[in-house]
């Protein structure tokens, strides 16, 4: 089983990157800092991919094998939901992969960033409140 403290540390890192991105709150700030934003977006993508890999390798397989039906159902639900969120994030990342694309679409970038950041933060909260306690108990 993965060390839950490592997973929660990864959550903290992801939220910190989202907060750094959120500091650019106007189209003008986005346009002026498009390169720095593209670097942060790349870092965020890397952190999310590592985190998901850890969950897929250590958390979900363990929870899907426990005897308690409610735990198995919740882990299946979380796994399905995460697939959708990953698709949305990857589409966002692909759309704004370069500073040129960010700069050319600053207002849309801000709107989409707010939506995806809120979804990721909500997901992190749900994992820490519901899923990780189950994972710890399954140890």
Q: Would you kindly provide a written description of the structure presented here, covering whatever features stand out?
A:
- It is built from six helices and no strands.
- By secondary structure, the protein is mainly α.
- Helix 4 runs antiparallel to helix 6.
In short:
This protein has 139 residues and is an all-alpha fold. The protein is built from 6 helices and no strands. It has one domain (4-137).
Task: Give me some keywords for this one.
139 residues; mainly alpha; elongated
List the helices and strands and how they pair.
Blueprint: H1 4-22, H2 27-32, H3 34-63, H4 69-95, H5 99-104, H6 106-137
Number of helices: 6
Count of extended strands: 0
- Shape type: elongated
What's the pLDDT, averaged over the residues?
Answer: 91
The unreliable regions are none
Overall number of structural domains: 1
Helix content: over 70%
Distance between the terminal alpha carbons, to the nearest Å?
Answer: 7 Å
């Amino acid at each position: 089983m993965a060390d839950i403290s490592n997973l929660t540390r990864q959550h903290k890192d992801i939220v910190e990157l989202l907060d750094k991105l959120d500091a650019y709150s106007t189209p003008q700030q986005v346009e002026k800092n498009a390169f720095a934003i593209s670097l942060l977006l790349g870092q965020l993508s890397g952190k999310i991919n590592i985190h998901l890999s850890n969950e897929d390798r250590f958390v979900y397989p363990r929870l899907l094998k426990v005897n308690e039906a409610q735990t198995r159902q919740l882990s299946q639900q979380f796994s399905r939901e995460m697939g959708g969120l990953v698709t949305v994030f990857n589409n966002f990342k692909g759309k704004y992969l370069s500073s040129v694309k960010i700069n050319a679409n600053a207002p849309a970038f801000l709107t989409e960033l707010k939506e995806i950041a809120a979804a990721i933060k909500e997901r992190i909260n749900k994992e820490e409140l519901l899923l990780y306690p189950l994972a710890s108990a399954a140890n």
